[in-house]
């Protein structure tokens, strides 16, 4: 099974998943990939935080709008077409998620963005250049559709501003890792 660590140094709720403890530690500590390294990062960001930091978002911005605005700041990378993909949550429920493939000199990744209830979920599956596979995109989709966040955007903003930390673990990372 995959290894999971909450990113303690990150001020936003995030976890990183990797196939081995060695890869997980290397990616978190060095923020770089070696040949055969692959990792998944999951990040929850309040939309309010994005607008506070200069991202000009409409109040009813959809996932594709948010992803396109974020990508405007990417330099030195080759960006694929952003597109909306429909992912199945249950037999009766689907969500529209924005997706893009990114190729850089030091990393290749699939990035998925989903916006709902004042939060942006970003899931990125990254690998060493030349080693990204379509299966990795499937992994990202599994993570997007399996996460269960029990807090709110307000909970995260309060914690970021030095208020009380949420009492519950916001992302069930172990459940996500078990599905991998």
Structure at a glance:
The chain is an alpha+beta fold. The protein has helices at residues 21-30, 47-52, 63-71, 134-146, 153-160, 173-179, and strands spanning 3-6, 14-18, 38-46, 77-79, 83-90, 93-104, 108-116, 119-127.
Keywords:
alpha+beta; single chain; globular; 29% helix; 180 residues; 6 helices
Task: Tell me the Rg in angstroms.
Answer: 16 Å
Classify the secondary structure makeup into a structural class: alpha+beta
Report the end-to-end length measured between terminal Cα atoms.
7 Å
Count of distinct strands? 8
Helix content: 25-40%
Low-confidence stretches: none
Largest sheet: 8 strands, antiparallel
What does this structure look like?
By secondary structure, the protein is α+β, with helices and mostly antiparallel strands. The protein is built from six helices and eight strands, in the order ββαβααβββββααα. The protein has helices at residues 21-30, 47-52, 63-71, 134-146, 153-160, 173-179; strands spanning 3-6, 14-18, 38-46, 77-79, 83-90, 93-104, 108-116, 119-127. Strands 1, 2, 3, 4, 5, 6, 7 and 8 form an eight-stranded antiparallel β-sheet that branches. Strand 6 and strand 7 form a beta hairpin. The protein starts with a strand and ends with a helix.
